[in-house]
Design goal:
Elements: H1 10-20, E1 29-33, H2 45-53, E2 56-59, H3 62-72, E3 78-80, H4 86-98, E4 103-106, H5 119-127, E5 131-135, H6 140-148, E6 162-166, H7 172-183, E7 188-193, H8 198-205, E8 212-217, E9 225-230, H9 234-239, E10 249-253, H10 258-262, H11 268-280, H12 283-294, H13 298-315
Parallel strand pairs: 1-4, 1-5, 2-3, 2-4, 6-7
Antiparallel strand pairs: 7-10, 8-9, 8-10
Helix pairs in contact: 1-2, 4-5, 7-8, 11-12, 12-13
Length: about 325
């Protein structure tokens, strides 16, 4: 995480106490605390006050959280609660809460329990009849959405809102199937990706052709980049700078353009060609060949194939 040059959080801790110190912080409660996704100054005053107040902090990576707390001038007992031990570690947290302790839950960055660990812990605490108190704050999802310039009114009711998908499957075939589903999704879609998998994701999203995509890299950090480009151009965008293979990514797949939402009809001959190919070949191969034969956009052919598949499944 980056910290503003020469900054000290001593005054921020004082401000947090002055602004939120008199608020009620019940005992036996799990505080789900959003932490910065990059810039340490994005912490809220109430989050700082809670982190000063709690008896312990359940965190994804104790070393990472210890470093973050140290930047703020805070030191607290840390409990490792990550994706590999969350169910078991939740028992210790529940036991502490039952003794009347206050425990905060944080992830390495952003809001816990969205794409990071925390959901199982929250479930266990609620199942024990104990209180969960969420503190809003930084999130890569909303950070990129507000910079993507989406306007659902331009696309009508079917495209209103957005879908949060997070990380697509790591296996190639499963990822391709997931992209096929995205091709038929009329709303905006938020994706997350690690730098070492971005090249594979770019190849998979290329089938969506001209559909706009907003890419956010290193959000809120010194070398932040936010660009909007066609899905087909993501691979070349990545290749344009070696720096783009580094850092965490959030992506917003924009809503389907109005013309794509209208009816999605293909010329009769193109439909016939695609039907014939689908009868003999896997969907991906059939669409690729149909694109070469008919000259139709690959995205339109994918959507048509998915509609037919869904109709067949509904009929059966």
């Amino acid at each position: 995480m980056s910290s503003p040059s020469g900054s000290s959080f001593h005054l921020a801790l004082q401000a947090a106490h002055a602004a939120a110190g008199d608020q009620h912080y019940p005992k036996g409660c799990l505080y789900v605390v959003a932490t910065p996704i990059g810039n340490l100054a994005d912490i809220t005053l109430r989050a700082l006050q809670v982190l000063q107040t709690v008896d312990a902090i359940a965190c994804e990576d104790t070393r990472h959280t210890a470093g973050m707390l140290g930047q703020y001038g805070l030191h607290k007992p840390l409990l490792a609660v990550h994706q590999h031990n969350e169910a078991e570690a939740a028992h210790e947290v529940v036991a502490r809460l039952q003794l009347g302790e206050r425990v905060a839950c944080v992830s390495d960055a952003g809001t816990p329990a969205i794409s990071d660990p925390g959901a199982r812990l929250v479930q266990a605490v609620r199942a024990a009849g104990l209180r969960v108190l969420p503190l809003p704050g930084a999130s890569s999802v909303t950070t990129l959405l507000c910079a993507a310039g989406l306007d659902a009114s331009l696309h009508g009711t079917p495209a209103a809102g957005f879908a949060f998908v997070g990380f697509l499957p790591s296996k190639a075939q499963e990822r391709e199937r997931a992209v096929q589903v995205l091709a038929a999704e009329p709303r905006a879609v938020v994706l997350l990706e690690a730098p070492h998998r971005m090249a594979e994701l770019a190849k998979a999203l290329a089938v969506l052709g001209p559909r706009p995509l907003t890419v956010g890299r290193e959000l809120t950090k010194q070398f932040e980049e936010i660009d909007t480009l066609p899905c087909a151009d993501l691979s070349s965008w990545m290749a344009a700078s070696p720096q783009r293979s580094r850092g965490e990514f959030a992506l917003v797949l924009h809503p389907q353009p109005p013309q794509a939402l209208a009816d999605g009809a293909l010329p009769a001959q193109s439909e016939k060609t695609l039907h014939l190919l689908l009868a003999e070949l896997p969907l991906k191969t059939a669409v690729r060949l149909a694109t070469d034969i008919t000259g139709e956009p690959k995205n339109a052919l994918y959507q048509a194939a998915l509609r037919w598949k869904q109709a067949d499944e509904a009929a059966n």
